[in-house]
């Protein structure tokens, strides 16, 4: 779920940082620029991993700062398609579930990517009806395992209506259709039943 | 800004946890101030709840060498290392086309896929230490 991305950037170094050692100052400036921000197609920046090279230090005419050409690696949160993640259900609506990973919460699982037989119950919660007639509810704060099915980086909207959901620069679409996916409790329970059966056989 | 390499290498959850720890991330909210940013702290706390919390470099290396015979792709290995499957259902979620691929052994001969999955789970169990019990379970 985490990858490194190598980036080269022309970094203007503000004069108030000149009192600090160069590498520390560059790192602080990079953290200010990138930390906890989404870069389109790269993902969410978690941390500055390392600084590989620093060149230059030119002072351009009319500027009060020196500009360095810095090559560095960022630690990005960018799951690949097909990766398995575990999160908590943070909400639901008519389209599907919203899942949060604590540090990243723009994950949605649409209704058509849930196990066959999942529908909304009368109170609005999503529910899986099994062949045996059991009703398994997908409740708030339940731990859920899902497969990343796609990642979108929508462009910044020109107009934002008050009723719209807050803009998310990175959206992960998850799927819980398949073996072993869905609430962790479903599969943990299966295991116990299996063990009970095995014991009974013995 | 110029992106030189979009993908300069994948990291397992353990490596990220190790990196954040070396930078001084702690679970204590006050201890985080100054050393690492609040967003890094959140990632750290999330990772502590995953099976990565008690893995070591050696255990991952051991797993990677021992799982050669299962012919997993790197993506499969990453999923398995990050989430430590403990039941057959977990393995089916984490390994693509698990049923088809586990129906052959290392010499390419047909074998029972259920037994093969069990063998694989046994390997995972031996390589990685079990996750520590959850706090709620400890209170009980």
How would you characterize the overall build of this protein?
The complex is a heterodimer of chains A (202) and B (140). With 202 residues, chain A is α+β, with helices and mostly antiparallel strands. Chain A folds into two domains: 2-77, Dna Ligase, domain 1 (2-Layer Sandwich), CATH 3.30.1490; 84-196, Nucleic acid-binding proteins (OB fold (Dihydrolipoamide Acetyltransferase, E2P)). Chain A is built from two helices and 13 strands. Chain A has a five-stranded mixed beta barrel. Chain A has a four-stranded antiparallel sheet with strand order 1-4-3-2. A three-stranded antiparallel sheet of chain A has the order 8-9-10, with no helix packed on it. The two termini of chain A are 42 Å apart. Residues 194-202 of chain A have low confidence and may be disordered. In chain B, helix 1 (13-22) crosses helix 2 (38-48). Chain B has helices at residues 13-22, 38-48, 57-66, 74-83, 88-94, 98-101, 113-127, 135-139; strands at residues 2-5, 10-11. Chain B folds into two domains: 13-53, no CATH class; 56-127, Growth Hormone, Chain: A (Up-down Bundle). The longest helix of chain B has 15 residues, at 113-127. Chain B has 140 residues and is mostly helical. Chain B has eight helices and two strands, in the order E-E-H-H-H-H-H-H-H-H. The model of chain B has no long low-confidence stretch (mean pLDDT 82). The A-B interface holds A 1-10, 31, 35-36, 41-42, 46-47, 49, 71, 73, 75, 77, 80, 82-84, 86, 101-103, 145, 147, 178-181, 187, 190-191, 194 and B 1-13, 15-16, 19-20, 23, 36-40, 42-43, 45-46, 50, 75, 78-79, 82-83, 85-87, 89-94, 96, 98. Strand 1 (2-13) of chain A pairs antiparallel with strand 2 (10-11) of chain B. Chain B: This is DNA-directed RNA polymerase III subunit RPC9. Chain B: Its main location: nucleus. Chain B: Residues 1-131 form the RNA polymerase Rpb4/RPC9 core domain. Chain B: It is found in: Nucleus. Chain B: GO terms for molecular function: nucleotide binding.
